[in-house]
Structure formats: structure tokens, C-alpha cells
Design goal:
Blueprint: E1 7-12, H1 19-25, E2 28-30, H2 36-43, E3 50-55, E4 61-74, E5 84-99, H3 100-104, H4 113-116, E6 122-125, H5 127-136
Parallel strand pairs: 1-3
Antiparallel strand pairs: 1-6, 2-5, 3-4, 4-5
The protein binds a DNA duplex through loops.
DNA sequence: GCCAACGTTGGC
DNA sequence: GCCAACGTTGGC
């Protein structure tokens, strides 16, 4: 079987839903998305895909890696049944969180959606970028 | 606290 | 269909 894993970045305010919280729960539903582009990205996710977990606002850093455990289904928090959610489980936290400032300091990473489209909360990453971002945790 | 970037709403 | 007003997100 060819490896068809796709890579993503999920953004959350740690005060609302933190990686620590996800670790405690063991598995979490990624709901509450109310943006069409983010929705489209959620619908593109396949079970087994990997995503970076980014804490926005107060931390502004990538703090961990998660895996998609359930593909897009109706968002339980949405009464209109227009929006979708996925389920994720934590894989491992990063030893050193990768800060936004650190990412911005890398010339080869200035074109990623996290930088160019700061308000998007669910975005695709290429495999290369995914690994480049993880590598920053080691430097 | 401020502001830029977007998205949504509603008047016309 | 256009656009002003307003709300939200998120970086600084």
C-alpha cells in the first residue's frame, strides 16, 4: 500500500482547547469550525493523517503532533448540520515548542498558510514543510 | 490595547 | 449585486 498520509496544521487557543487537555482526554473531537475554507480542509482529511497542533494567541507555538482518528462527520455542536468535525488523538508533544517567531525567521517557511493566512484555523501542509517544522523543535 | 485581515449582515 | 458597518480572529 502506498503511503497516502496527508499533513495538516490545526490551530486552537490553549485557553479554549489545549494540547494538554487533548493528552488528558486521549482523543478529542475537533469541532466548532465555522469557516468554509477550514471546513473544506477538514473534509479532505483521511484517517491516519497527521497534524501539527498550534496554540494561538497566548502561546503562538506548535506544541505537539496529532493523528486523525475519524474523518469528517456532522459537527455535534452545530444545530444547522452544515459544519463538520473530525476526531484526533495525540501522538506526542514536542520537546521544544516551535514558536511563530522561530518559523518566521526561516526564509523557506514564509509562504506557508500559517504565516500568509493567519486567521485560517485548519490548513494543509506539504510533507516537506511538516518535517521542516518538526525539525525546528530540535534546533 | 490596537490594528490588519476577513467574514457576515443588511440597506439600498 | 454593491458596499458600509460590524464582529471575530490573531499578531504585535
Amino acid at each position: 500500500m502506498p503511503d497516502t498520509t496527508q499533513y495538516w496544521l490545526l490551530k486552537s487557543e490553549p485557553e479554549t482547547y489545549s494540547y494538554t487537555h487533548l493528552l488528558e482526554e486521549g482523543e478529542g473531537t475537533w469541532d466548532g469550525v465555522r469557516n468554509h475554507q477550514a471546513k473544506k480542509n477538514l473534509q479532505g482529511m483521511k484517517q491516519g493523517d497527521k497534524a501539527l497542533f498550534y496554540h494561538s494567541v497566548s502561546e503562538k507555538a506548535i506544541v505537539g503532533v496529532v493523528e486523525i482518528t475519524e474523518e469528517a462527520h456532522p459537527d455535534p455542536t452545530d444545530e444547522t448540520e452544515k459544519w463538520v468535525a473530525v476526531k484526533v488523538k495525540p501522538l506526542y508533544p514536542l520537546k521544544n515548542p516551535v514558536s511563530l517567531a522561530h518559523i518566521k525567521a526561516c526564509p523557506h517557511l514564509t509562504e506557508i498558510p500559517l504565516i500568509k493566512q493567519s486567521r485560517l484555523s485548519v490548513m494543509p501542509l506539504s510533507e516537506t514543510v511538516f518535517h521542516q517544522l518538526l525539525a525546528l523543535s530540535e534546533s
